[in-house]
Design brief:
Order of helices and strands: HHHHHHHHHHEEEHEEEEHHHEHEHEHE
Radius of gyration: 34 Å
Number of strands: 11
Structural class: alpha/beta
Number of helices: 17
Shape: elongated
Strand content: 5-15%
Oligomer: single chain
């Protein structure tokens, strides 16, 4: 067999068994411009609509948060009034202890309101993230093989994208509501004490809002670029981890390290740009807020001292002056909170664009149920992975009789595993057709419920051996699990193990030999009441003695099912009713 070149081994997605990022050589750095790829670009209106749809799921806790924010504005008014009256009473020698009590109560109430509003926002965010993650996971589970979306993009969308919704829901939405309602309400309240001061506060809102809009526009562009950089780095890292054995084989560690470092530096640079915009916008907003409060303070001070250089239709006393002065910072506080949370909105919009870009499959019919083992026919089947050099299989014909065993023999890369994956909707059907009991595969629902699988790398999950055997058939009884273990010859190994079936395994299956892993996989397949059995290299990497011991278990697992086995082993092929050799 010809050894692959470095670029072909690293860059051939699917055919070489490595999911590199859509066929790009693993040593290639991301050099395209820092912008969202076409697959992740979504119309802004569509993004906004999707965010609104998600927000409706958390409407109840969000309403509570908004009510609490309005109450916070009321307690702010009470705090300003209590402070003004306490200072006035102290200056005039009147009783002021009652006002001090009200001041303390208002302060405590504000803290309680802020805590409860934060908790309500967090509950709303949890509900919405759960819904978004379930929707994204469903879209990925139903995506067709050979799609344009890479695993790195998908992982970033489901993990980072969903988490980016948290700040939008828990912080930005309540802050936006508060910024829309509270400042005007407080200005109206301030107008009862000083119309001129209220006019100053209202006039200063205009440059404040303009500064927020300009900063928000800049932050939006930088946030989208930063999220795209994060997706690129995630895709690159996942790609290289999957190709790690090949990277080590070709001693490409230093080049891969440089590529990862370069992409990480680009992400850091984008993140710094986002922070730079955020700091600039915060500085501008703080300037206008401080300027407006200073103008109110100057006006109130000169009015009290009767030193205004122009006539005004009001004469303030100490109580009203302190009330307006204490209320002035509260007018801009919601706007400042909104500015601080505005980046959360931009991050959520960028993340929602990636969630929208996840592939949505057409509704599929209900999964079929076969009363007896079905006949499977492959007619003119061609399997071609995206950007592969050639088709894995081309114009392939095969009929698997009902209840029989068919073995597929062939060298690595001949398409044995791809043929099995085709039945599980994990490989693209580029041409031809597959009939199961005379029905086209495309018209059937997912066959996974009717298929028992035994692969060369069995999935092991943290849990007991019994839990892992029953992974594909959770309703199995203890007696059924024990019977399946005995039928594949696991009883001896379990008897020698502390705990037997209840022995605990980690996710790597530590403590299980290669043969025991294969027997566990076969026991899982036997336990699942499925009429179709697919096996992928069930004896690979086992010595001759272990393989011979496993043959009876394979024969037992295949009994009474339509079975398709991909193997290099002639001994396994000898168990089959028919043997097909792939070139």
């Amino acid at each position: 067999m010809i050894a692959p070149t470095e670029s072909s081994a690293l860059g051939r997605s699917g055919r070489a068994g490595l999911d590199t990022d859509q066929g790009r050589p693993a040593g290639t750095a991301y050099t395209q411009p820092m912008q969202a790829r076409p697959s992740l670009i979504a119309d802004h209106t569509l993004v906004t609509t999707r965010l609104k749809d998600l927000t409706r799921a958390g409407a109840s806790p969000l309403r509570r948060a908004r009510v609490l924010i309005l109450l916070d504005g009321a307690t702010a008014t009470a705090f300003a009034a209590a402070l003004a009256c306490a200072i006035d009473a102290l200056a005039t020698g009147k009783e002021f202890w009652g006002w001090l009590v009200l001041l303390v109560v208002a302060t405590v109430a504000r803290g309680v309101m802020a805590k409860l509003a934060g908790e309500a926002g967090a509950r709303a965010a949890a509900v919405i993230k759960t819904l978004a993650r379930a929707d994204a996971a469903s879209a990925l589970a139903a995506r067709k093989p050979g799609g344009a979306l890479s695993s790195g993009d998908a992982t970033t969308a489901v993990v980072e994208g969903v988490e980016a919704l948290d700040g939008h829901v828990s912080r930005f939405l309540p802050a936006r509501f508060a910024a829309a309602a509270t400042p005007l309400a407080l200005i109206v309240v301030a107008a009862f004490a000083s119309p001129i001061a209220a006019a100053i506060l209202l006039g200063a809102l205009l440059p404040f809002i303009i500064a927020m809009a300009l900063a928000g526009t800049a932050a939006a562009a930088e946030s989208r670029a930063q999220f795209a950089a994060l997706e690129r780095l995630s895709g690159l890292f996942l790609d290289r981890v999957r190709a790690l054995p090949v990277v080590l084989a070709f001693q490409a560690e230093q080049r891969i390290t440089r590529d990862l470092a370069r992409s990480a530096d680009e992400l850091a640079s984008r993140t710094i740009r986002v922070l730079r915009v955020a700091f600039f916008s915060s500085g501008a907003l703080e300037f206008f807020a401080a300027l407006s409060v200073a103008l109110v303070a100057v006006y109130c001070g000169f009015n009290l001292l009767r030193l205004l250089p122009f006539p005004v239709p009001e004469q303030l006393d100490l109580k009203r002056a302190f009330f307006v002065l204490a209320l002035a910072p509260e007018v801009y506080l919601p706007m400042r909170r909104l500015a601080a949370a505005y980046h959360d909105r931009q991050a959520a919009e960028a993340a929602t664009a990636s969630l929208i870009a996840l592939p949505r499959s057409e509704p599929r019919p209900a999964a079929p149920t076969f009363a007896a083992p079905p006949k499977i026919r492959f007619s003119g089947v061609t399997i071609r992975y995206p950007e592969a050099d050639a088709a894995v299989l081309e114009d392939f014909d095969l009929e698997v009789p009902a209840g029989k065993i068919v073995a597929l023999l062939g060298h690595s890369g001949s398409g044995k595993t791809s043929l099995l994956n085709l039945l599980l909707d994990l490989a693209p059907l580029s041409a031809g057709g597959v009939l199961v009991d005379g029905r086209p595969l495309a018209e059937l629902g997912a066959l996974s419920g009717q298929v028992a699988w035994a692969g060369q790398h069995p999935l092991i999950t943290p849990g007991s051996i019994a839990d892992n055997i029953a992974l594909a058939h959770r309703v199995a009884t203890r007696a059924q699990i024990e019977a399946a273990a005995e039928r594949v010859g696991l009883s001896g190994a379990l008897a020698a193990r502390v705990g037997g079936l209840d022995a605990w395994l980690d996710e790597r299956g530590s403590g299980l030999s290669g043969g025991e892993r294969r027997r566990l996989s076969l026991a899982r397949a036997i336990l699942k009441p499925a009429p179709i059995l697919l096996m992928d290299e069930p004896t690979a990497n086992l010595d001759a003695a272990a393989e011979i011991e496993l043959l009876d278990a394979i024969r037992e697992a295949a009994r009474g099912r339509t079975t398709l086995i991909a193997t290099h082993s002639q001994a396994v092929a000898d168990l089959a009713d028919h043997v097909v050799r792939l070139a």
